Amino acid sequence: xxxxxxxxxxxxxxxxxxxxxxxxxxLLRGPDRLRLLPGTLWRLGPRALLAYARHRLNHGAARKTLxxxxxxxxxxxxxxxxxPPEHRARHALDVPTGADFDIRAVWEQGRLADAGAAQAExxxxxxxxxxxxxxxxxxxxxxxxxxxxxxGCVPDAAVAAHRDRILATLPYAIxxxxxxxxxxxxxxxxxGLALDDAASASRGRALLERAVLRLFAPSGGFAQHALRxxxxxxxxxxxxxxxxxxxxxxxxxRPALARLAAxxxxxxxxxxxxxxxxxxxxxxxxxxLFGSLPQDLRPVLARAAASFGEPPAPPAFWLDEAGxxxxxxxxxxxxFMRLPVHRFRPSQADALHLxxxxxxxxxxxxxxxxxxxxxxxxxxxxxxxxxxxxxVSFDDDDQMxxxxxxxxxxxxxxxxxxxxxxxxxxxxxxxxxxxxxRQVEFSGRQVLxxxxxxxxxxxxxxxxxxxxxDWRLDGSTLRGPGAAVRIDGAxxxxxxxxxxxxxxxxxxxxPALEAWADRPGTMVTIITLQ
Length: 530
Prior knowledge:
- The protein is an alpha+beta fold.
- It folds into 2 domains: 43-314, Glycosyltransferase (Alpha/alpha barrel); 326-530, Beta-galactosidase, Chain A, domain 5 (Distorted Sandwich), CATH 2.70.98.70.
- The protein has 13 helices and 21 strands.
- Strands 11-12-13-14-21-18-17-16 form an 8-stranded antiparallel sheet, with no helix packed on it.
- A hairpin with a 2-residue loop joins strand 16 and strand 17.
- Helix 12 (254-270) packs antiparallel against helix 13 (298-308).
- The chain is globular.
- The two termini are 29 Å apart.
- Mean pLDDT is 93; it is low at 1-18.
């Protein structure tokens, strides 16, 4: 049993009951669901709701549009590894995406990121349109098309099939208000250019223009609050723009290109220029396009810069209220904080998470994403939860309750947001009336984090997920590679190992420092860098 600091004395103490497996919490049910659902729908907005209604009403027509085009599905092909036999030859729109197999892993091989002509031909032979999981998603179809066009190994008939698959469910892409709207519009534009199909090219360009202006804030932050999906959106928008320029076709407008340039600058702030490593904020499914590696975003930045302009040097401090982020930058040290802001539906309950970097070393880090599908992986940790982040959680609750797998209710009420030289601040009030106010000060080799919390709860737990290494807790001070961490004001501390996903589809444990309080108050963390 660990030794903890309580009441100023080293004592043997019991950590309050908690779920270190981080299983998903039950979806919101009953009266609370009925009470909170209308407000959530209002926050989604009429545009998204109407687009989704069009998608549902159009489902039958879309299914007829995607009729067989000849050829039998090769259900024994390795392209279907991991897919239950009953789903391998189903109509694309009938394939379940949340069933007892992880379709994201299946889609990865169907993206054909490094395919040569022979591999592309084998894929198209085994997966005739529009059957099986590889045609189930318009975005995955757009990504595959981008790779095939980039490699120059796709016949016109296959380009047309990809175009038609994207067209069939465009209202769904628009309704998502996320990377789908960018990816599928870019895919449609590129397909139209490749086929000399002026109508598709014009429609794709117009949809991409609209999506960029809606989803990228002027500050550069993307609607999805996720670095991985911001990178993916920049990759596919940039690919379509480069194809249009090469063909001498109309480009995006100056305002849209300015948003994408701002998005590139935003991404550059979070990426280490020496290694390409970056804060894994938000959903991170390890997507990497055009032969890149997930852990190195330098090629992504290079392609974005070639398309939208070289990003400026990161500022000493920045506040992106629209995008939901703030940061400090001083030489090799970078501090990032997730703000409690949601212009669009939040992807994680991660408000006030803090990431700390010293050069390429991520000292205080995000836990990543283990899976999107807990039916396929019932033992996987839910790393979208508040307890999976470097912030304060109340009891076993998340900051927001879930209505469905990708939809939270009761979005947080921001109370304060600020950034200045060496200082950051963010604060929120949750749906149960509890508040958390985080203030960060950075000077020299020291980062001070003050967390004030109030409201009704049995315990408030502060967690710091640490870089791997030999960490040792001595009283109220934790010492390890590159830093010493002291927490004042806690009822108890413990060094533990908590769930961590080094990449999508894999998880293990990693070191973490936990501190807790059993009443409203303040905890102060002092991090001294070595």
